Amino acid sequence: MTSRHVERFLEMMVAERGASPRTIDAYGRDLADFAEHLGARAPEAATADDLRAYLAGLAAAAMTPRTMNRRLSALRQFFRFLFAEGTRADDPTATIDSPRLGRPLPKYLSEEEVERLLAAARRIEGARGLRAVALLEILYATGLRVSELVSLPLASVARDQPVLVVRGKGSKERMVPLSAPARDAARAWLTARAELLGGEAVARKNRWLFPSRSKEGHLTRDGFAKMLADVAAAAGVSPGKVSPHVLRHSFASHLLAHGADLRSVQQMLGHADISTTQIYTHVLDERLKSLVNRHHPLAGKG
């Protein structure tokens, strides 16, 4: 049985922080796993030693530091909530060190590989092809999260504006420039949008840019991922190398490679903290090395 304190915490995450259903589901599973570790004792009564023993068990089971950190993050927020509410007089996570993470570089495609994906999408006939091109052009032009992309409202492109207004994590809005090819692709898709829904009458009742017959009313994350895998195979790019998030990484990496500043990329990606965006500094490092090698008077000597 779920603890009432866990239920109150999850309700707070929705009401006060605008957490998505996926986030709530992940937190619920993480807290349930911790409760199972404790056995008969309630999670809200756990001690710092209980937390250390739990993390040691995860490490012994060869769980990655990144996943362990995610679970510890859920526990930290839970116990901070209990402390703030006065349910506990202390926060047992305050003395717990986070598992050390490596610094994996983000996976991204080359510009040539992105062009091959777009070319393969353009070869798809009919409305499905126009939708595929619009999805890829908008994603690569904006770096949207896949959840933001598939849930774009029809109104976001209805007036052919040069920017998209995106509602991201925590219901925060941001403006992202929309390139001319992406706007062209969106206009072309709008001419065929009704075809996939079975006619104009049905399409007018659907408020999403990329509608579907799913319960959400719009294209699902899984539906887009499958379409992307098919396009990758047709483009001769390994489907295992391509994902919506890899295209988001490609957007950021290619922007920086062509001279964009990190703060602008942070704003376009919707990162609350620039430290999140700093995973892309490897691109800046490579660009600086290239500049030095090409232009420094001593670079060709020795």
From TrEMBL:
An annotated Gene Ontology molecular function: tyrosine-based site-specific recombinase activity
GO cellular component terms, A-Z: cytoplasm
Record field: transmembrane: none
PROSITE patterns attached to this UniProt entry: CB, TYR_RECOMBINASE
Domain Tyr recombinase: 104-293
First-listed, main subcellular location of the protein, grouped into a coarse class: cytoplasm
Listed SUPFAM superfamilies: DNA breaking-rejoining enzymes (SSF56349)
Active site: R145, K169, H245, R248, H271, Y280 (o-(3'-phospho-dna)-tyrosine intermediate)
The Core-binding (CB) domain, residue ranges: 1-83
NCBIfam families: PRK00283.1, recomb_XerD
Subunit description: Forms a cyclic heterotetrameric complex composed of two molecules of XerC and two molecules of XerD.
Job description of the protein: Site-specific tyrosine recombinase, which acts by catalyzing the cutting and rejoining of the recombining DNA molecules. The XerC-XerD complex is essential to convert dimers of the bacterial chromosome into monomers to permit their segregation at cell division. It also contributes to the segregational stability of plasmids.
Name of the molecule in the record: Tyrosine recombinase XerD
The gene coding this protein: xerD
